[in-house]
Design a protein that fits this description.
The chain is of the alpha+beta class. The chain is about 35% helix and about 25% strand. The strands form four sheets. Strands 5-6-1-7-8 form a five-stranded mixed beta sheet. A four-stranded antiparallel beta sheet has the order 9-12-10-11, covered by helices on one side. The chain has a three-stranded mixed beta sheet with strand order 3-2-4. Belongs to the DNA polymerase type-Y family. It catalyses: DNA(n) + a 2'-deoxyribonucleoside 5'-triphosphate = DNA(n+1) + diphosphate. It is found in: Cytoplasm.
Length: about 375
């Protein structure tokens, strides 16, 4: 049994900008500094929060929250419509700083990325030193702050970057990994969503140490094919390479309900939440889509999908929500209960067909 990561170790950095959109707004407009800034759609248009400044986060405002809810939590919040062209330009500037040290860069969105500095361009050798130099360059050249996580793989580096926010750096070295993973709450594990976390807790599995008591066979039996992934992850094993190109084919959100839904009004209420999440993710990636798909799984586990293609690219909440409600209205729910609903969007702008049929697309986020 592999006890954990083994040498030779990779040197992975995860850089995560601090409240990126809001910080750019506060940098560019002095009147916003030290104010609770909420970037996203306006409350009277049923918008969604893309990000919030730390001043607004103190009131509980979070990304993917409805703007109406954000306004209730933070009545003094200043709502700012996103300026994606500005954010994209700043992202390009950030990536230029990354490229001083490595070309092995995997963007996750406009405001975060993985870097593999196992072999860095400048021969520095220390991933900690490189991460600190990158943070200082971002601060001095762009007047923004970033948090960094440094470790031997992507999963642990990403968790580390969130441990000392904002404007912090955390290193989790090989000797710390097993203890760190044993203490980690299950909901912090990569790929563990709300429903899976609830299932784990119902099985009295609350931390990595609890998960570690299950054999690989037991993990697969309880959690399917991802069980093997969790089995390795809890041991700090993550062999995923940093990929310079990321393929985005769709953006989705779905939820499995503790109690099956019977009323259409309850389904519409859930679609509203899902549409907010998808809108927020589109905004975070600065994408627009043409095709939206509704996914429905019934209590008997039968699953159907219905899709709709817009005549023009869309990314606004209202279009996504109304179109999924339209698709829902065309379904026959006679005598059926719904255990899962999902919304996904695809067919993004700026996509390049990968083959003659044009049904696979690749997009570089940076």
């Amino acid at each position: 049994m592999n006890p954990g990561p083994v040498p030779p170790y990779r040197k992975i950095i995860h850089i995560d900008m601090d409240a990126f959109y809001a910080s750019v707004e506060q940098r560019d407009f002095p009147e916003y500094r030290n104010k609770p800034i909420i970037v996203g759609g306006l409350p009277d248009r049923r918008g969604v929060v893309a990000t919030a400044s730390y001043e607004a986060r103190k009131f509980g405002v979070r990304s993917a929250m409805s703007s109406v809810k954000a306004q209730q939590l933070c009545p003094e919040g200043i709502f700012v419509f996103p300026r994606f062209d500005a954010y994209k330009q700043v992202s390009q500037n950030i990536r230029a700083i990354f490229r001083r040290y490595t070309d092995v860069i995997e963007p996750l969105s406009l405001d975060e990325a993985y870097l593999d500095v196992t072999q860095d361009k400048l021969g520095i050798g220390s991933a900690i030193t490189i991460a600190e130099e990158i943070r200082q360059s971002i601060k001095s050249e762009l007047q923004l702050t970033a948090s960094a996580g440094v470790s031997v793989n992507k999963f642990i580096a990403k968790i580390a970057s969130d441990m000392n926010k904002p404007d912090g750096l955390t290193f989790i070295g090989p000797s710390q990994i097993l203890t760190f993973m044993e203490q980690l709450p299950v909901e912090k594990f990569f790929g563990v969503g709300k429903v899976t976390a609830q299932k784990m807790k119902s099985m009295q599995l609350f931390t990595g140490a609890d998960l570690k008591q299950l054999s690989e066979t037991e993990m697969i039996r309880h959690f399917g094919k991802t069980g093997k992934f969790y089995y390795n992850m809890v041991r700090g094993i993550d062999e995923r390479p940093v990929q310079s190109q990321r393929t985005i084919k769709s953006i989705a959100a779905e939820d499995t309900f503790e109690k099956d839904l019977e009323l259409e009004e309850d389904m519409i209420s859930e679609l509203e939440k899902l549409a907010q999440k998808v809108t927020s993710r589109l905004e975070k990636h600065a994408l627009k889509a043409k095709t939206i798909t509704l996914k429905v799984k019934f209590s008997d586990f039968k699953q159907i999908t219905r899709n709709f293609t817009f005549p023009q690219l869309k990314s606004d909440y209202e279009s996504l929500f109304q179109s999924t409600c339209f698709l829902l209205s065309k379904l026959d729910f006679s005598g059926k209960k719904v255990r899962l609903l999902g919304i996904s969007v695809s067919n993004f702008e700026n996509e390049t067909p990968k083959n003659d049929k044009g049904n696979n697309f690749q997009l570089s986020l940076f």
